[in-house]
TrEMBL record:
The keyword Lyase does not apply. Signal peptide: none annotated. InterPro entries: F-box-like_dom_sf, F-box_dom, P-loop_NTPase, SNF2_N, SNF2_RAD54_helicase_TF. Residues 223-274 form the F-box domain. It comes from Phytophthora fragariae. It comes from the Eukaryota. This is F-box domain-containing protein. Pfam families: F-box (PF00646), SNF2-rel_dom (PF00176).
Length: 417
């Protein structure tokens, strides 16, 4: 997770795959080269990448151009350049080449609202660009080095096989009219639920740095830390703690944090793997720090100005509006949903036992709406005038059917709410 300043930045970064130009960035082993670049329109209405140092110009071409790719890469950059020419967006581009097993080049485009953008400018024709400016509030940022590499490689491969070649985009897979269309996959419901619960992997970090451990052990005055003990010994110690001690231990380091996720004091059964993942996700969603990190608004690209006349881009209505700088914040809690019979009740009881003895943090809620009006928590609506539904109509009819089925006539009762 980025720091709060970066999280609330008014810039949005779009990263596109690009061809590797060795005359611009000589590739060296294990290095990252960054070169500023600008988008320029040619006399024949094409787009070029203009590099200042070295002074090189390259016609825009996608990363799969040699294989006859028919993608929207050029259309994307043409639309972005047009928005820049119309003073709607500021665009700062950087050509980045990273060398690993094979060199990979990307165009990193930092986009922000132009100060002279005119209110009411329609942007319906620029949906391809605007769809990539929505903030990924729930994006997963793995901190484990291996998971980070796997995530980056998967994102690059997915971008290479998309129609926009934007890294991290899942909106534009190859369509039916594309030459490089992958096999069509059916909707897999378990995969959908797994993607929704994958937020639990957000805070995974490296448990033990082998290089640091070896360096400490080779010193003359070597230091032995508690985390150097065998994992099974530490696990036995953690299992003897109560809920409040586990909460305190979770804040020590990542090793104890992930060990504590597996322990539920007072629960005399073993949770299944999917139940442990659900418990971990719910504990994560009850972390008070979720509300303390400002995040970019997912549907409004605003400027830094706090003025009521400041310009912004409404990414839903696709137009320029006047709106002061706005950020979003997460909220604790969530909806725990799963298919019937998978043990939601046991998982929820495990959460209750896991948080036994703890109290909730009465964090003040920001209730300001888009119009800037402030509604004080606790105020009731002045438009409410009595009941619209009678008490006798608010009943659970399912009990009527169950009682009638189990006990026959004469046992039917209504239970008002």
């Amino acid at each position: 997770m980025a720091d709060s300043a970066a999280a609330a930045s008014v810039d949005r970064t779009i990263e596109l795959l690009a061809p590797v130009y060795e005359d611009v960035c000589p590739t060296t082993v294990n290095s990252v080269t960054r070169v500023p670049v600008t988008l320029q329109r040619t006399a024949d209405d094409w787009i070029q990448l203009a590099f200042a140092n070295p002074s090189v110009r390259k016609d825009v071409a996608c990363v799969n151009g040699a294989s006859g790719c028919r993608c929207d890469f050029v259309r994307f950059l043409r639309a972005l350049l047009l928005l820049s020419e119309r003073l709607v967006l500021h665009v700062h581009a950087t050509y980045v080449v990273s060398v690993g097993q094979a060199p990979v080049a990307t165009l990193q485009l930092r986009v922000r609202v132009h100060e002279e953008a005119k209110r009411g400018t329609p942007l319906k024709d620029f949906d391809l660009v605007l769809s990539h400016l929505q903030a990924t509030v729930l994006s997963i940022v793995p901190r484990n080095e291996q998971s980070r590499k796997e995530t980056v490689n998967a994102a690059l491969e997915q971008a290479k096989n998309s129609s926009c070649h934007v890294v991290g985009c899942r909106l534009h897979p190859w369509g039916a009219d594309k030459q490089m269309q992958p096999p069509k996959q059916k909707l897999n419901l378990p995969d959908v639920f797994h993607s929704l619960t994958s937020q639990m992997e957000v805070d995974q970090m490296e448990i033990r740095d082998d290089a640091t451990y070896v360096a400490r052990m080779t010193r003359t005055n070597k230091q032995i830390l508690m985390t150097d003990l065998p994992t099974n010994v530490l696990q036995n110690i953690v299992c003897l703690m109560n809920a409040r001690d586990l909460a305190s231990l979770s804040g020590v380091c990542s090793l104890f944090q992930h060990m504590a996720y597996e322990v539920v004091p007072g629960l005399n059964l073993v949770l299944y793997d999917h139940q442990r993942r659900g418990l971990k996700w719910m504990l994560r969603r009850e972390t008070p720090s979720l509300t303390c990190i400002p995040q970019p608004h997912p549907f409004i690209l605003s400027s830094e100005s706090e003025s009521e006349s400041a310009t912004a881009v409404d990414l839903i209505e696709d137009r320029v509006i006047t709106h002061p700088h706005v950020t979003a914040s997460d909220a604790c809690g969530g909806m725990f949903c799963d298919e019937p019979g998978l043990g939601k009740t046991i998982t929820m009881l495990a959460l209750i036992l896991r948080t036994k003895g703890q109290t909730t943090d009465n964090t003040p809620v920001d209730t300001r709406g888009p119009s800037g009006r402030v509604n004080r928590p606790g105020l009731r609506s002045a438009r409410s005038r009595g009941r619209s539904v009678g008490v006798e109509d608010l009943c659970l009819n399912i009990f009527e059917r169950l009682c009638g089925r189990s006990h026959g006539k004469g046992w039917t009762h209504l239970f008002p709410l």
